Amino acid sequence: MTSHPLFPTQEIGSLMKPRWQLQGQQGVALDERARTEFRTWDEKIHFSRGAEASANSLLTDPPGKVSPDEVRDLGALFGLRYFETRGLDRVYDAEARRIEMYEYPIRQMHGFQFFGHVRSFDNKYYLKAANTGEIRLERPYHVEEFDFVRTHAKAEPKLPITGPYTLADWSFNEQFLARQKGWKGRATRRAAQREFVVDIARKAIRPTLAALIEKGCRVIQIDEPAAGTHPDEGALVAEGFNAATEGLDAEFTMHICFSDYRDLFPALLEAKRCRQWAWEFANRDRDGLDGYEVLNVLREYGDTRDVGLGVLDVHRDEMETPQKIAERIRRATKILGDPKRIWVNPDCGLRTRSLEVAYAKLGAMQRGAELVRAEFSNPRT
Amino acid sequence: MTVRTALSGPFPRSEALVAATRDLDRGRTTPEAVEELFARTEKEVLDLETRLGLDAFTAGYLRWQDTFRPISESWSGFSVGPVTRMFETNTFFRQPILLGPPERTPGAIAARLPLPLRSGEKARAKIVLPGPYTLAGVLDNRSGDTTEGLIHRLGRLLGDELRELRGLGYSIFQFQEPLLVVDPPTGPRAESVLAAYRAIAAHSAGATTIVWTYFADAVPAHALLDRLSVSAIGVDLAETDYEHLGPWSGAKALGLGVIDPRTTLPEDPTEVARIVRELQDRLKPPAIWLGPGGPLDLLPAEAATRKLLLLPAARRALAADGGPR
Questions:
Q1: What tens digit of pLDDT does each residue of B18-65 get?
Q2: CB contact under 8 A, A226 and B90
């Protein structure tokens, strides 16, 4: 088992894709900006070590010489070294091979049809699938991706995967609704949705988690960003989590963000195999509001699980100082009582920030954690 | 009893429009090309509404980025704020921010209506606007006015809007009021909602005014809905416990949201006809409007088109049984 310092740090999601990776994957010649970006970051975090042949070829050979898969490998190395150089205790590859978190997992399953796009807002859309038939996993996914990370990571890897509740909530439910007799009112719809969440958990997510664990994956973050969409469905989020992880041995965490966590309690407590709640807080810690006050919900219910404490606002370039981060950690420690329960991380993935800003924010996060760590190891100073 | 059918809100953008508007944001196409496609697609939606035999036309409101945008972009006192979740959906809108007393800009809404509604048969065009309670509830109110005062004021402004649109020949108006059932107002707030709709009614003589509710059960809000000064109240049948829906007093028509935009699964016309008959027998409304229960743009265009076939099918099922009694 990996040992960690007090207030260990971890990543929580994806980063913006480097320009050189996007161009390299497309098989076009890197422009000057992409080359400079590559070289600048390589000097800083040495991500191309061990992959010099691909790196040199990407920078100097005609376009297309390096395959898209080799470029993605370089992207994954970039993500790993980016986090490791900042000193994070748990890392992943910045989801370098993933474009989004819904369509890819759904396309690994039978029983779904894409009828077209649905508007998210303005001119932003997403493909939303309908579950029209029996759910069957084509093959466990993220496994090769994890294997690459495991082979190359120096810090402890933590794999993120979209959870069953979110996959079901972001899909249309035809299969289970069609089985319900009579008018499809609210109660009928909820019953059908429960079947859908549990089925996708058992038939698609669980086998994937089992395959990942078989490959040596020990820490798995189940992402449930949809959990806050229907505040009265906390029990279903927990049921899906339990069905996905049933009988599996790994450290499971649950990431939820931009939600009113209070609404999900006490129902969410039933996610028994969840060892850590990784939530966003920094985003709401402004304008005179205490973003960490919501942690009291855990104290109220006597829940003693670890907390992944979001200390970086991923929607603002404004830089958190190490002192600000330390103060946030202290506040959370005071509420939770036990400093050993706190992991320090960004609110969510930093993909909305530039690589430079995200890197600086992670540096501040690390220094903030060190400040509080020093106070606890030397309480009188 | 009359059964009428119509869309009750925005229609989804076609896949071609999805691609074009994305390209526009990425600088890969021109505003003129997108405008041309919008005009063509509006015409296609109108043609679809005609083919389905609908009684009122919307042309889909495809250009509107969200229900509130025509107001937040054109009325003074407003600005367009952050992306905000649209109730319990995975769809978002830009929260209107009210920085000072709201004032309408004459002609602004009319200019934002779909082209076929501006140039076609205006008497059958359905103008869909946010209701005063929902608009007041979703916006970020920095105007200094109380919520109650704001609801009433927005009602007066929407009444002025209706007067202007009536003058242009429009006569069917629908106010989107999901918040009336998601968070039914009580006390002084309920009184301000009633006052707002009285202000709208002051300009609606001879027009059809509809309050359309969705995303929650209308039964708990029934008493208030029944007191609104409008011609018809629409309820979302996928959410409403219709067996406990009470009768409307006066001569209000009943709107039934029979198409659930939260699933691609088509509804059964026989089942819909059964419920319509049951409600007709029990509530005896003077007319029934059938339409989608909520915004149809929660679906992809292909699925929405398929699901709309329910409306003529339900009508046929009702007619085959001698129509609603």
A1: 999 999 999 999 999 999 999 999 999 999 999 999 999 999 999 999
A2: yes
